[in-house]
């Protein structure tokens, strides 16, 4: 393994976190953590052993008993300290994230900040977790409900947002009174470990956040472990479908955000500069590795005249190392890069035109990086591979239609429904679009319509499995269960004998 001259993480082999202790795994199988800009191995990530995973989940269950009885005010105080520590360490976290994932430092800071916003929102848990009360539903009888934690929960995280996605999960779960067993992506485990380290410093008790590592074996363990009541997952469709099926079969709640094909609709009355810049930034930023990237542009009517200018602007963007002054970084793996290139090439053979071609881009100072340049593919039809599959690379697929109705029909026929945007100066068009389109997140003149944590990250159709969404009020609902109490404190109970009839609440006795 390559020795780093200026390490930003203290270990070469990533450790498990069990019972508040970072411990070396006894694994026999390890995954290389590779800097995608240089091709260098920067750490080894273990496939945690069955004994280690079982110890982690049993410890989580034991620790949660006391934590659930900790006052919500004291749990919130831990989160207040946690958000402070994240802010104080934000530059170091961004550097770790950039080294293992490849995105630019500015984008890494944005990744972290959007997760930090969720941490801040958990500091309202006293309000978010409130139940309901109705007095005198019947004579001397009150009914009230409150939310209780589930117990042990689990989070399975993707590679593309090493900070934001874990922070969507464990801060909400534990502030609601649960414990969480976290499994970061084996490609980018270092950011999660730093976030876990800061959580311990903030006062999260030992065992309330445990971290294990691995691939399929770790996923299967999480799906099968009887102590785990709920699973949160963000990632690709194949894995998400599998986790949802296996987890729910075992009686667990599962929320899974899956793939996407997000369309950006450009109306002829849109602000041209804003629309074109938004398309380029959303599709090319983060090397296109965002589940909310506007990877598909739909130009309506005369707006198609702007396509050459779109291509000209996109051609000026250059990939490079994230810790340099680059427009965007590398793909996460060579396999991901090769797949993106294949989808473009196959579509070109079917008649698509590659106006901006990033397939052969190189970065001379880092020849082993997973480089692909900005690409714009036009004359695309809905039957081409670059449209039917999520490229998840810095490529913008361009289609044209005659009317807004045509654009909406195209979007609604696509199996995915993660998000979409429209660029227009017409309130009538915007309102029609937001009402008729079938997507979880809708932007109006907004390129990446990811909602702030006062709301929830939603989705539609093949982009989601499970019916309760991430963070916000729905996130709290996912990690809690409702208990309803009906109490009768009649000052003078009457001896009317036993009755076999169903009591009629609301009828004064």
UniProtKB/TrEMBL annotation:
InterPro entries: Ald_DH/histidinol_DH (IPR016161), Ald_DH_C (IPR016163), Ald_DH_N (IPR016162), Aldehyde_DH_dom (IPR015590), MeMal-semiAld_DH (IPR010061). Residues 23-485 form the Aldehyde dehydrogenase domain. GO terms for molecular function: methylmalonate-semialdehyde dehydrogenase (acylating, NAD) activity. NCBIfam families: MMSDH. This is methylmalonate-semialdehyde dehydrogenase (CoA acylating). The keyword Oxidoreductase applies. The keyword NAD applies. Its EC number is 1.2.1.27. Belongs to the aldehyde dehydrogenase family. GO terms for cellular component: mitochondrion. It is an enzyme of class 1 (oxidoreductase). GO terms for biological process: L-valine catabolic process; thymine catabolic process.
């Amino acid at each position: 393994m390559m020795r780093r001259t200026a390490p930003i993480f203290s270990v070469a082999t990533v450790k498990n976190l069990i019972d508040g202790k970072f411990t070396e795994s006894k694994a026999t199988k390890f995954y290389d953590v590779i800097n995608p800009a240089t091709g260098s191995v920067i750490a080894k990530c273990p496939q945690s052993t069955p004994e280690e995973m079982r110890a982690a989940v049993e410890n989580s269950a034991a620790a949660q008993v006391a934590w659930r009885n900790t006052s919500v005010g004291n749990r919130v105080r831990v989160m207040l300290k946690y958000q402070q520590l994240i802010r104080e360490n934000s530059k170091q976290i961004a550097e770790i994230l950039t080294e293992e994932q490849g995105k630019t430092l500015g984008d890494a800071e944005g990744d972290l900040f959007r997760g930090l916003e969720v941490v801040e929102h958990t500091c309202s848990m006293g309000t978010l977790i409130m139940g309901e009360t109705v007095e005198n539903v019947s004579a001397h009888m009150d009914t009230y409900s409150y939310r209780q934690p589930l117990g042990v929960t689990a989070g399975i995280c993707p590679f593309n947002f090493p900070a934001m996605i874990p922070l969507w999960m464990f801060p909400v779960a534990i502030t609601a009174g649960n414990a969480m067993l976290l499994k970061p992506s084996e490609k980018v485990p270092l950011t999660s470990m730093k976030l876990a380290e800061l959580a311990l410093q903030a006062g999260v008790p030992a065992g309330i956040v445990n971290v294990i590592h691995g691939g399929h074996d770790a996923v299967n363990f999480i799906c099968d472990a009887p102590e785990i009541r709920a699973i949160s997952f963000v990632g690709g469709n194949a894995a998400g479908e599998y986790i949802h099926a296996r987890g729910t079969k075992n009686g667990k709640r599962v929320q899974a955000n899956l793939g996407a094909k997000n369309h950006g609709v450009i109306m002829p009355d849109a602000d041209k500069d804003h629309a074109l810049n938004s398309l380029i930034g959303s599709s090319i930023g983060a090397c296109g590795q965002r589940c909310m990237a506007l990877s598909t542009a739909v130009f309506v009517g005369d707006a198609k005249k702007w396509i050459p200018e779109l291509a000209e602007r996109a051609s000026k963007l250059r990939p490079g190392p994230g810790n340099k002054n680059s427009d965007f970084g590398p793909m996460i793996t060579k396999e991901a890069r090769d797949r993106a290139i294949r989808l473009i090439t196959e579509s070109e053979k079917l008649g698509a035109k590659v106006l901006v071609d990033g397939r052969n881009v190189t970065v001379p100072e880092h020849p082993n990086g997973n480089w692909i340049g900005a690409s714009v593919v036009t004359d695309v039809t809905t039957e081409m591979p670059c449209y039917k599959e999520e490229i998840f690379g810095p490529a913008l697929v361009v289609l044209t239609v005659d009317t807004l109705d045509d654009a909406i029909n195209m979007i609604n026929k696509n199996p995915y429904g993660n998000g979409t945007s429209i660029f227009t100066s017409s309130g009538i068009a915007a309102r029609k679009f937001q009402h008729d389109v079938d997507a979880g997140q809708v932007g109006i003149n907004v390129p990446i319509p990811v909602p702030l944590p006062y709301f929830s990250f939603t989705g539609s159709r093949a982009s989601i499995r499970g019916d309760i969404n991430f963070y916000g009020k729905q996130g709290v609902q996912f990690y809690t269960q409702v208990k309803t109490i009906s109490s009768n404190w009649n000052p003078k109970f009457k001896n009317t004998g036993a009755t076999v009839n169903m009591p009629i609440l609301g009828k004064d006795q």
